Structure formats: C-alpha cells, structure tokens
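Section 5.1 Outputs to date
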Amino acid sequence: MTSDSNITRGIVERFHNAHEKHRPDDLDDLIGEGCVLENTAPGQDGARYDGREACLDFWKGVASSANLVFKAEEIWASEDRGIIRWQLRWGGGEKDRTRGINIMRVRDGKIVEGLGS
C-alpha cells in the first residue's frame, strides 16, 4: 500500500468511526473546502450538497443520530479513493437495517468528495 493509500485509509477510517461512535465533532478536521456529497436519498435522484459546510452539516446530523448504528463491513483505500461498505441499523427488527457503500475522495488529508448509496 502506498503512503497516499495509507493516508486515505486513515482519513476514511476516522470518518467511519465518527459515525459508528456518534462523535460528530470528530468530522470537523476531516472535511475539505469545496467538498461535494451526492446521496441517494431522497428517492429518485437523491440530493447533492456543495461546499464544506453543507457536507459537514449533513454528515454531523447522521453521526449525531443515536438511533442509527453503523458497522463497517470493509474499508478499502487506493491512492486518493476510499470505500466503506457498511451496515446500518435503526431498530431491533430484522427489517430495521440496510447495507450501503460510501466512495470517498481525499485530497491534502481532507475528504473532498463523497458518493453514498
């Protein structure tokens, strides 16, 4: 693994841990200026968030939701790209869960792009 890949993996792991441990303030130093987030919700075409503050506000909202339980299935990185495959639970029932993926781009030690499904 290259040093860029190691840096990217570290940033992506910190991002995921902020969500898994419900620590939204841990995201403050991870999101870069000019960040773009494309999300699959709301349905059909999803939503797009432009700029550091918009992305940070969205991700902090998710990370601060105590009823959401994230668990990483896999975290992978190569150069400036990182991938998180995750499970999300929001209740105790069998149907109260889903699986998804985030594809991240890291530049200068900050997340500048997030694509979520």
